[in-house]
Amino acid sequence: MLVTRVIYVKAAEPRSFVILDAAMNDLMRPALYEAVQLMLEIKDNRKVKTQQCDIVGPIFESTDTFARNYSVSSEIAFGDLVAFFFVGAYGAVMSNSYNSRDIIPDVLVKEGEFEIIRQRIDQSVLRGLKDLVLITKPCVMA
User: Fold this and answer.
1) Peptide bond preceding 14: is omega within 30 degrees of 0, i.e. cis?
2) For residue 10, which of 17, 24, 71, 128 is within the disulfide window of CB 3.0 to 4.6 Å?
3) C-alpha distances in angstroms, 48 versus 5, 6, 17, 51?
4) Domain locations in the chain?
């Protein structure tokens, strides 16, 4: 699962844009072969009207698009959290630092508990200006 935040909702015709803080470098499958991941807003919007929007990242590349004409709450707004489900191993393996963006951390969620198993890799590490401090606690899945 990839959890991300809405950073802007841009009204446009024929559809508005929901701009997320995640980008194509965090989840490459939609950019590479137009895969559509199940995306849900992390709040109860069952009784709210919906609207069709394009779900995009902040990189402003034509391929920085998670979904076109996707149904979301008409009340979706800045700061709302959304989750892409069934991201799987491709989310982590294909993530990269395109456009000088940090590589997002991996978080293991098990039985209501969570643990960071790969920390955020920022530009100072990627440029060799700072050493990457590895997480030494082993990850054990029972």
Assistant:
1) yes
2) 17
3) 19, 18, 18, 10
4) 2-96, 105-142
**What percent of the chain lies above the pLDDT cut of 90?**
43
pTM of the model: 0.82
Q: CA-to-CA distance for 15 and 68, rounded, in angstroms?
A: 9
What average pLDDT does range 111-127 have in this prediction? 84
Token pair, residue 113, equals 């508990």
**What fold characterizes domain 2-96?**
Lyase, Ornithine Decarboxylase; Chain A, domain 1 (2.40.37)
Q: Can you give 19-32 as a three-state secondary structure string?
A: EECCCCCCCCHHHH
Task: Report the C-alpha gap between 23 and 114 in whole angstroms.
Answer: 23
**Locus of tokens 């034509």:** 62
